[in-house]
Amino acid sequence: MRPHLVERHDLAADAFLLAGLIFLIGILIQTFAVFGFDGEATLSMWTELIGMAAIVVAVIGAPLAVWVLHGHHLKIRDALGALLGLVVGGVAGIAVFFLVFQLWRFVPAVFDRDQYGPLDLGILMALAAAGFLVWPVKRAIVDLRGERRQVRVDGVRIGALAALVAVVLVSVFLGQAEVGLWLVPIGAGAAMAIIGAELIEGRLARKSVATV
After folding, report:
1. How far is Cα 64 from Cα 197, in angstroms, rounded to an integer?
2. What is the pLDDT of residues 141-181, one digit of tens each?
3. Contact at 8 Å (CB) between 92 and 189?
4. Which of 62, 91, 107, 108 has the smallest number of Cβ neighbours within 10 A?
5. What is the structure's pLDDT at 179?
6. Source organism's superkingdom (predicted)?
7. By residue range, what is the domain housing residue 58?
């Protein structure tokens, strides 16, 4: 794979993972706000806003944080590229996710969906995410065991992955497989946002080289 494609893949993977982690933290805060420590549910406008804020911070804040983590300077054009990537990727991602979810209702259930929820669909999403993340994670492990060129990036990538895997496994055990389903479109939106920023930066860099 070409170096710029490797960098793009790593950026997208890190944005995917960090967005998922931020979203999960927001959901945990929302859960405590709803149920508190006495176990009684108390829904309010504020608890709804916490959930919405978690999504916004995840799909916007995560790409920007990863962009800086990888050593890029944050400029207006990068933010605009991220916004464009988020809009295009978000619309496409929501459409694909909705289509898959609707079609999945007609697929014979592998597990009892009344008891386990959409566990079979969750497994499919997990396999797709694993296929997307396997090479960036492998590169991080190789770097940590060898040259250690980007220890912070490697640590964030592996730490976020470990946290997400743990939460997804616990959610499946508790019969809440839909938690993992939400992570995929949110992570995909963040990945598309950072790809948009990277594409614009690369396009401008090529133009500046061509004019020299």
Report:
1. 9
2. 999 999 999 999 999 999 999 999 998 888 777 766 667 77
3. no
4. 108
5. 72
6. Bacteria
7. 3-211
The overall average pLDDT reported for the chain is: 81
- 176 or 68: which leads in pLDDT: 68
Q: Which residue has the tokens 């809009």?
A: 87
Cα 25 to Cα 67: distance, rounded to the nearest angstrom: 21
Domain count, the chain: 1
Read off the DSSP letter of residue 61: I
Mean pLDDT for the stretch of residues 189-194: 87
Residue carrying structure tokens 């209702």:
105
What DSSP state is assigned to residue 174? T
Answer for the pair 179, 28: CB distance below 8 angstroms, yes or no.
no
Non-local CB neighbours of 125 within 8 Å, separated by 6+ positions: 180, 181, 184
- Count Cα neighbours of 5 within 13 Å in the Cβ-side half-sphere: 3
Which position has the token pair 């497994």? 123
Token code pair at residue 126: 């997990």
In sequence order, what are the residues at sequence separation of 6 or more whose Cβ sits closer than 8 angstroms to the Cβ of residue 163? 21, 24
